[in-house]
């Protein structure tokens, strides 16, 4: 990948991705000559409506969800998929919209303790409105088990939201099994299918099956810019019959579920990007997994005191999250950036408080481990040359940072141990201290 005359080795595809050329090519006319408002009855508006419905067709085919025939009416919003301005908005619509619409059935919302901040923030808002928010916790392997979820569901539960794969370790959750547990708990005399089940599938698009009939979910969030589509466009699958209230009000577009003039170029790009990654899924998964494994083996062979975060096998093929002991993850990111290597860290979600990643701490990782975490996420444009360049530069960066670091963790663990404990010199670390 080129940037300002030099190669950029990009390993942050969980954060965002570049727009594919073929996607951008389809989008371009809708910025200029085909700029019509899809709500208008004129020819330009008609052209925009056609473009939106073409995108709905692609997305509905990938999700295997229903879409009304639109050859005559060209009515936008007739499908089970609603376009939003981002995955965060889609998450908010799913959480706030369904909870507020179904409060008469109960006030309990269950989320996992590894959710995206769009879910967490929406749940916190509902708590201020009198809803009860309960967290189902992952086990040390990073997975949520159906029996743990079943213990939390009661007659007051109206909504469950569990991510398909978290955005730091890429651990894949057993969504279909969790949905089955949810369905078994449903009270048959409810007027609605309570509790509803929502999942944010933004990270799994392009790597896992998005068939909502197989997953069984009632609501599913997607994002375009994670799959080489444009930023500023996301969407929410809403199973027909799901009772939901809008959180944005206005002209009643998209059947009143999400008002506002549609982002036609973004919608066009979203549909094409999802269609492309869907059709390339098998070959791309195999290619990226091979590169990820090459990177993993190289890091563990070249650098000592490295710990894998997340499930060792049940994770997305493009994710590698490691804790490199005795360094700060943020420092590693900055030093690698100087070498034109783009990575990320889950070590400081709040730059002012320097709080460690809530996902890594949910896995039981101590503070020092979380602060040394580095996340590599690969994508369509990652090459062997990119991987080999990282394996050349990363050991040098780690050596330099360790020389400057006052920390020297002596991990008391074997290579086969998944739950290491760290000891700083002869002292007990703060995370083992008695309170």
Structure notes:
With 435 residues, this protein is α/β, with parallel strands linked by helices. The strands form 5 sheets. Strands 4-10-9-8-7-5-6 form a 7-stranded mixed sheet, sandwiched between helices. Strands 11-12-14 form a 3-stranded antiparallel sheet. The protein has helices at residues 21-27, 43-63, 87-101, 117-128, 146-152, 175-185, 212-215, 264-279, 281-302, 329-338, 358-362, 367-371, 384-404; strands at 2-3, 6-7, 9-10, 81-84, 108-112, 132-136, 157-161, 196-200, 219-223, 234-238, 306-308, 319-324, 341-342, 373-377, 409-411, 422-424. The chain starts with a strand and ends in an 11-residue tail after the last strand. Residues 69-77, 347-353 and 413-435 have low confidence and may be disordered. 36% of the residues lie in helices and 14% in strands.
């Amino acid at each position: 990948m080129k940037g300002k005359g030099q190669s950029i080795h990009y390993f942050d595809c969980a954060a965002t991705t570049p727009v594919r050329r073929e996607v951008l090519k389809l989008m371009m006319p809708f910025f200029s000559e085909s700029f019509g408002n899809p709500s208008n009855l004129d020819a330009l508006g008609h052209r925009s409506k056609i473009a939106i419905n073409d995108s709905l067709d692609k997305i509905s085919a990938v999700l295997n969800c229903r879409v009304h025939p639109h050859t005559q009416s060209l009515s936008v919003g007739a499908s089970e998929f609603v376009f939003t301005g981002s995955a965060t908005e889609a998450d908010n619509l799913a959480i706030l919209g369904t909870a507020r619409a179904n409060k008469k059935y109960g006030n309990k919302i269950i989320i996992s303790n590894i959710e995206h901040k769009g879910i967490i923030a929406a749940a916190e808002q509902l708590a201020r409105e009198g809803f009860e928010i309960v967290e189902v916790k992952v086990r040390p392997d990073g997975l949520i088990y159906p029996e743990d979820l079943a213990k939390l569901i009661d007659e007051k539960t109206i909504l469950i939201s569990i991510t398909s794969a978290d955005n730091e370790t890429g651990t894949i959750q057993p969504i279909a099994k969790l949905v089955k547990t949810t369905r078994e708990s449903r009270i048959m005399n409810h007027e609605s299918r309570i509790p509803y089940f929502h999942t944010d599938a933004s990270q799994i698009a392009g790597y896992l099956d998005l068939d909502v009939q197989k997953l069984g979910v009632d609501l599913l969030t997607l994002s375009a810019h994670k799959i080489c589509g444009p930023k500023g466009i996301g969407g929410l699958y809403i199973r027909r019959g799901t009772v939901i209230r809008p959180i944005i009000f206005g002209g009643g577009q998209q059947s009143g579920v999400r008002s506002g003039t549609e982002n036609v170029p973004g919608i066009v790009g979203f549909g094409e990007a999802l269609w492309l990654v869907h059709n390339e899924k098998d070959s791309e998964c195999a290619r990226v997994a091979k590169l990820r494994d090459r990177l993993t083996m190289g890091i563990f062979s070249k650098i000592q005191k490295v710990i894998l975060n997340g499930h060792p096998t049940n994770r997305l093929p493009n994710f590698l999250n490691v804790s490199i002991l005795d360094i700060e993850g943020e420092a590693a990111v900055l030093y690698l950036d100087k070498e034109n290597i783009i990575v990320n860290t889950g070590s400081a979600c709040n730059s002012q408080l320097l709080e460690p990643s809530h996902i890594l701490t949910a896995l039981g990782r101590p503070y020092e481990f979380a602060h040394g975490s580095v996340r590599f996420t690969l994508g369509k444009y990652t090459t062997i040359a990119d991987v080999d360049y990282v394996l050349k530069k990363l050991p040098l960066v780690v050596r330099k940072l360790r020389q400057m670091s006052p920390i020297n963790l002596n991990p008391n663990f074997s290579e086969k141990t998944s739950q290491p404990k760290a000891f700083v010199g002869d002292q007990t670390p703060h995370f083992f201290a008695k309170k």
